[in-house]
Every structure is written in C-alpha cells, then in structure tokens.
Amino acid sequence: MPYAQITGWGMHVPARALTNENLVQMGVDTSHDWIASRTGIERRFVAGKDEATSDLAVKAAQEALLLAGTRPSEVDLILVATCTPDHIMPSTASLVQNRLGAENAGAMDINAACAGFVYALSVGAGQIESGRARQVLVIGADELSIYLNWRDRSTCVLFGDGAGAVLLRASDTPGVLASTTGSDGSGANLLMIPAGGSRIRMNGRAPAQKDRYLRMNGPQIFRWATQMMAKAAQKVITSSGLKPDQVTLVIPHQANLRIMEATAKRLGVSTEKVFSNVRNYGNTSAASIPIALCEAIGAGMVKPGDNIVLTSFGAGLSWSAVALRWNVEVPAHLPRWSPLRRQLEATMATLRSALRRQERAVRTTIEERLHRD
Ligand code: UT7
Q1: Which among 21, 22, 154, 284 is the best mutation to test ligand 1's pocket, defined by most ligand atoms within 8 Å of the CB?
Q2: Predicted local confidence at residue 123, as pLDDT
Q3: 0.90 exceeded by pTM
C-alpha cells in the first residue's frame, strides 16, 4: 500500500492587514489588550472586494505545485476545504482546477468548517493509499470576513482570510501515518451562519441581515475545543504507534492561543513543540493549519524524520487530526524561474479554458442548426 506524503506546500493571504488598533479605530467596542490577552491575536488579513476564496486558493496551490515540481496536468484530484465558497455551486475546487489548468484532475469541496483542511488531508491520503490517485492537491481556503458583523465584538475580532495548500504524492516511505475525523451535530447551533442554504428560505425576500452573519457561543466552543483537540491528537498519536515524546511538532487549529496552550498541557507536550502564528493571522478557518505548516517549515522547525501532528476543531461540531512523518528536504528557496513558470502555466490555463468555452459554444450552434434542418 502506498503512503501519502506531503511534497509541496504554499500559502497566500490578502494584502490588507487589520491590526487590533485598526478595529478600535473602525469603532469596534474592544481594545488591543482584551483581544491580545484573551486570544493571542494582534493582526489579521481581510480580502478585498474583488478577491474571492478561489483567488487565494489558486495562489497557494501554485506555490505548492512549484515546490513539489509537479505540473498541474499531473494532479489527479483537487480538494478544497472551505465553508466560504465563491458560489453555492459550482464547487470552488472546480474553479481552482480550471485556473490552474489541472485538466486531468477531479475536483470537489469539503466543508467541515475550521476542521476542513485536516478532513481533506485525510480523504486525500485515503485516495492515494487505496491506489485511486497518485497526486492530490489539498487546499484550505476561507474568507470568513464576509460573514462577520463588525458590530459584534465577540466574533469580528477573531477571524481573518487566507489559503494554504499541500500536494500529497504516493510514496514507498511513510508520510501520513494515521488520521481521525469526527462530528457531534448536537452542537451545530454553537457556531453557524444561518442564511445562504436551504433552511432559511428567501420566499421572495432577502433573509434578515442578522442571519447572514456568523454567530457563535464562544465560551462553550472554548470549553469543548480545549478537550477535543487534545483527544483527537492523542488518538492519532496512539494509532500511528508513536510515543508522545516522539512527536516533534504539533500544529493545532489557530483559533485562540489559550486553547492551544490547554491542548499542549493535556497532551503533555511542551508549548515549544506547539506551533502558533495566530498572532499574525487570527483564525483563518480551514486555512489556519496549512498556513501554520508553511510558516513552521519557513522557520526551520520541520526536517526529514520529524513526526508532526495536525489537530483541528470547528463548526459542526467537527474535528480531525492527522499524524505524519515528514520526509522531504526543505529547499532553501524556489528556483529562479519559478515565477515565470507559474505565469506561463496560468496563461496557458486561461487560454485553454477560453478555447474550451468557445469550442462548446460553436458545437452547440452547429448541433442546433443540424437539429433544425
Ligand atoms: O474555529 C472555531 C472558532 N471559535 C473559537 O475558537 C471560539 C472559542 N472561544 C473563544 O476563543 C473565547 O470564548 C472568546 C475569545 C470568543 C471569548 O473569550 P472569553 O474569555 O470566553 O470571554 P467571554 O465571551 O466570556 O466574555 C467575557 C467578557 C464579556 O463581558 P462581561 O459580560 O463580562 O461584561 C464580553 O462581553 O468580555 C466581553 N467581550 C469583549 N470585550 C472586549 C467579548 N468580546 C470582547 C471584545 N472586546 N472583543
């Protein structure tokens, strides 16, 4: 049975940064001290008006493919973990597939909210282990800023936008060692965006504004998360046959520094082994773990032979964890021609997509004429 190994990684965040002070200046009834001391967050990035989730996802994915030395046409499957897709349909993954020019890839979205990326990693690894795919692009991308009520200080200070991606490739040497996924829908009401689906119908009218916003019972999620992330991590550590002291790095969902510290304590690992960058990005939902992974790699905290545990929680309630053995050398930098190659591949993908559209239109016209005649 082949293993699924991470061979490429990439991340992207929007250009616009919002500090805690900026929120205060915007009129949010909060303070830098409150946000920093209760969550660890100091800054987050927010997408511009013309920047959709797929735009962030494509950039992160291009970086991951370049690092892996994989052409888009060699990818078998694209999974985009998101709860803020560009549209209800088609999937954001299909839009990403088109923009990348990954003409041989299947594509679908996975929605497990903030736990989505680790869920998707587990699904992608399963496809490789079963022999159904050899290269799977797994992306976590979200723009929760769109659903924030900027007058609700208990939620709007927490979230940011971003995307992160990894390329999984079939390998003879261990990569993903174990994974777990879970859900407890009895807690669905604790974190939700009520409108936008089939439950709150429009009936000719727009849904109430309050139903379009993210709503959350913070303290209850907090209590549950401090237990759940550790439990999920513990489960994959045990089922991968690792001893806790063999784990070199834990990358938890970046929601709140206090939740991460409590997770470290429960797991019995020192906080130095628990990576956190929530300070700079806030909670980027499905993007938080791949962004943190990229930054941990960039900080020199990941080397071949390391055992890494990713553990996450989110709306659903849902949770997932993965234990993996890192096996690739981290290149000091991308080859010099990488931006050129990225540009060329993106241009080719745009041309190919335009040609396909044109071809479809011409064929439809011809078939309609033939049918009429
Ligand atoms: O991906 C999953 C996403 N969700 C989470 O991870 C959320 C998990 N929960 C949390 O991180 C924490 O519960 C929060 C950071 C959301 C809140 O921290 P807390 O320590 O649980 O505070 P709290 O909700 O119990 O509120 C304490 C006080 C309240 O005031 P009173 O009633 O004591 O006077 C709040 O109104 O803090 C007030 N408060 C704020 N004050 C200043 C709540 N938000 C703010 C704020 N600025 N932004």
Answers
A1: 154
A2: 98
A3: yes
Place of tokens 């261990």: 174
Question: Tokens standing for 217?
Answer: 């019972």
- 165-192: string of b/e by CB count within 10 Å (b at 16+)? bbbbbbbeeebbbbbbbbeeeebeebbb
**258 with 127, same domain?**
yes
pLDDT at 373: 80
> Which pairing describes strands 161-171 and 135-143: parallel, antiparallel, or unpaired?
antiparallel
Q: Within this chain, do residues 183 and 298 fall inside the same structural domain, yes or no?
A: yes
Q: Is 38 in the pocket of ligand 1 (CB under 6 A)?
A: yes
- Judge if 218 and 237 occupy the same domain: yes
Q: Are residues 221 and 362 in the same domain?
A: no
Query: Over the stretch 267-283, which tens digit does the pLDDT of each residue have?
Result: 999 999 999 999 999 99
- Count of domains observed in the chain: 2
pLDDT tens readout for residues 145-156: 999 999 999 999
For residue 360, what are the domain limits? 335-373
Identify whether 200 is part of a domain: no
Catalytic residue among 98, 111, 253, 307: 253
Q: Are residues 213 and 345 located together in one domain of the fold?
A: no
Work out the average pLDDT over 100-111: 97
Atom number in ligand 1 closest to CA 30: 47
User: Is residue 201 situated within a structural domain?
Assistant: no
At 341 the pLDDT is 85
Tell me 44's DSSP state.
E
